[in-house]
Amino acid sequence: MTIRAPMNNNEHGVDLDMVTTGHKRITVMIVDDEPETVRMIKTILMTSGMDVIGAESGLDAIDKCPHTQPDIILLDLMMPDMDGYETYQHLRSITSAPIVIVYARSLKDDVVEGLQFGADDYITKPFYPPELVARVNTAVRRAQYTAPVSIYSFPTIDMRVDMENREVTLQDQKILLPAKEFEVFSVLVRFAPKLVSKEVIAREVWGEDNQKIQNRIKYFIHILRGKMEANSSQPRIILSREGLGYRLATDEEAEVNPFRKVNKLEVSNLLN
Predict the structure, then answer these.
(1) What percent of the chain has pLDDT over 70?
(2) 76, 115, 173, 194: most buried, per Cβ within 10 A?
(3) CA-CA distance, 32 to 56, in Å (whole number)?
(4) pTM, 2 dp
């Protein structure tokens, strides 16, 4: 994703719903079913030098996103037809742009769930314009300067994942995962501790999504748990939320040394 540098605040952005430009400013997609809210956010962000585009529903956002390639998405949680949670999962499968959830101040439980779901930040209604602009700029900068990581470490649970060499080390013992198992596991590692839907895993690993692939993902998760968990029927590392997806536990959630000890012969047998 190419990140646009913020423009001088004296230069206004444009409404991309009204005109197409060749400008290289930050482009913000606003997903909200309330036209007045969309107009208000557009005005605030355009005044700060950003370009904006509105989407009146989740389906509208999913349709527009591949063509407009926004640098950041503001997503209202409470929408008819397709709610914010379902919309988030679809958007995450087609864009790496940061997604900031928008919610009413009275719905704090929703924002907690949204952040656990994987959203990058949140903003409350009613808006305080300087805060809205600051949060958008911060989320974009964070996405811009996040360098690719080849080695992921989880010190408390004693796990190290080397993406380049495709190695997983648990308690100083290497677990050599076959190609597809490693690819599935690596998606959870890269998104950790965010929840990852089967749809996202399917698109990341296979480049497409269908029921057959989702069944294969379920099978691979079962195999991975069998190799890594002390008790695969009560997983503490690869967690799941029924109907939503999977995620790696945070260091705080996992017990110290929850992995079962395996010897080299057992590792070899697991791979056969």
Answers:
(1) 76
(2) 76
(3) 5
(4) 0.52
